[in-house]
Amino acid sequence: MSIAGIPPFNGFWSKLIIIIAAVQAGRFGYAFWAVLASVLTLASFAKVMKYAFFGKLNAKWAGVKEAPFFMKFSMISLALICVAGGFLILPGVREIFLDKAADVIRDGSSYATVVLGAIK
């Protein structure tokens, strides 16, 4: 759902920011294509989810076993990270986690000096 841009997942916020930036820059064509790509992505993932979770199981797959514990754990961990990433845009949470990183990126020359200075 994050890739498809469903709120409150992090993919929604990134797509929304790109679309808003395109509209504010007067690039309505880019905003239109970004919205269209988001809708098509949602449609394709909805089709995949329909067949993967709600379709009939083919007889040749009847003997397939459930995923091992560590694979389930990894998938659940990644899902929780996607949900948590969606909350980073909220005030209060954003100041704690994102503002310091954004300041470093915004001041790119000092960041490059620190990173490249360590290579000596």
Description:
The model has no long low-confidence stretch (mean pLDDT 83). The N and C termini lie far apart (43 Å). The chain has helices at residues 10-24, 28-54, 69-86, 93-97, 99-106, 108-117. It is mainly α and 120 residues long. α1 (10-24) runs antiparallel to α2 and α1 runs parallel beside α3.
The whole-number mean of residue pLDDT values reads 83
Helical run tally: 6
β-strand number: 0
Morphology: extended
Structural classification: mainly alpha
How far is it from the N-terminal to the C-terminal residue, by CA?
43 Å
Strand content: under 5%
Question: Could you list some keywords that capture this structure?
Answer:
single chain; 120 residues; mainly alpha; 6 helices
Write a compact overview of the structure shown.
It is built from six helices and no strands.
Topology:
Elements lengths: L9 H15 L3 H27 L14 H18 L6 H5 L1 H8 L1 H10 L3
Helix pairs in contact: 1-2, 1-3
